[in-house]
Description:
There is one protein chain. By secondary structure, this protein is α/β, with parallel strands linked by helices. The protein has four domains: 4-124, no CATH class; 131-197, no CATH class; 214-261, no CATH class; 268-486, Uracil-DNA Glycosylase, subunit E (3-Layer(aba) Sandwich), CATH 3.40.470.10. The chain has 19 helices and 14 strands. It has helices spanning 21-33, 67-76, 84-97, 108-130, 155-165, 204-215, 223-229, 232-235, 244-261, 269-277, 286-289, 295-302, 337-342, 349-360, 393-410, 420-427, 433-436, 456-460, 464-486; strands at 11-15, 41-45, 134-136, 143-147, 171-174, 178-182, 187-191, 328-332, 369-372, 379-382, 385-388, 414-418, 440-442, 448-452. The strands form four sheets. The chain has a five-stranded mixed beta sheet, with helices on one face. Helix 2 (67-76) crosses helix 4 (108-130) and helix 15 (393-410) crosses helix 16. 30% of the residues are buried. It binds uracil.
Amino acid sequence: MRPAQLDLARYTVRLDAETDFSGWRDAARRLALNKVRPDDISWHVEPGSNQTDLPDVPAGVQLVVPRDFVEHAEIAFCYSDPGRFAFLYRLLWRLRTEPKLLSIASDPDIRRLETMEKAVRRDIHKMRAFVRFRKIGDGDEERYVAWFEPDHFIVERNSAFFVRRFTGMRWTILTPHASADWDGDRLAIGPGAVKGDAPAQDDTEALWRTYFESIFNPARLKVKAMQKEMPKKYWRNLPEASLIPDLIAGADKAAKDMIARMPTTPAPYHARLQAKHWPKNEPAEALEDQAANTISELREAAKGCRRCPLWRDATQTVFGEGPDGAKVIFVGEQPGDQEDLAGKPFVGPAGKVFDAILDDAEVDRQKVYVTNAVKHFKFEPRGKRRIHSKPNAGEVQACRWWIDKEFELIKPNLAVALGATAALSLLGKAIPVTKMRGQVIEREDGLRVFITIHPSFILRIQEPADKEAERQRFLQDMKQVKRLMAA
Ligand code: URA
């Protein structure tokens, strides 16, 4: 080995292959430890050069680079730009004095590194999606060959995936830069090939075409997105691609035919439920004339409730549940998403917390009546989700008609207001729940109202210790409710 030439010396590094990362790594280590500046090196690919003229690693020194760098560099090394060897060395050079460099997303070199990695990863993904094997030979001679044209030097990096996926097959993937061959036992990376080296057609092609045709949904065709996922350059090697132009051309008509074949959309579920229970679209006041002498009759009447506009978007009325003669009525705010679908109060996440704590307090949910201040789910649509929205004072007031009837028929000796909306409904005025929590307020009609928080408050606490503390406080409240029920 030649003695180290320092600083101004000019070095030529000859790598064994476009993908010779270990050769690059070894050269970069020697050069960086000998403080050879990036501008003093030129990088080339020269197969079989067996280079011996790079400086030795000086004794007693070590090159320290962040572990991440090697991972990033290995991927970016596949990027098909001849400047990548010098670029990665420049990064290595900078890392010696800027150890946090990799985390500076605004740095132009880091942005370039990210772009390179992204392109390589995308290419890897495309190869996994679009390699199509063609069968050659039969019996012992059977093997599968594919032709693929990646943008970057990814064959070596991607081969392990194909070995895992097609372990039981003998296959070869040919690309212009390299080929990968799996004989069922051993993977060999060989030289590049030309398209003509791969067979043109086989029986599996018809299968691919049939499959593609059957999964193609004309109504969901987004040509741009499809071309992004399946860029045109890959089409020529995909058996099913011959169908694409015709399928796209006919998509408009096919979508129209599909719509014409579709059954008429039924009325939304809630509209059907409402129509069943309120067929004549009577005014809300008509309800007051309906004599409901039992909770079940009241529940039936409430199915058609239109006392406020919330019925329009909700699925159904969620009425109270529990025995007619319950000693206590728990009042929540309004049904949530799951309650709206199930038609039952407190069955969703807040309901689960509530149930568990009632259980711990040895209050049997089967023996208590559980209802809500507002009986329809109020929400804001956000994408496909329905986000809970707090009912306003008018909606609470409109629903008092129902809750008063529930109290009239059940005659409990205690009411539990779970949160501010319930307290507003039961007491007719807003009260500070956190301040008055644990207190009993006696109404003019003699009903005792116990004030506590809504169980969803516990759900919203992130910090585990705080969550547990709040759960314990709610448990104490429920134990007090149990004592009050007996009084
Ligand atoms: N929150 C409520 O207030 N009531 C329910 O029924 C469910 C969640």
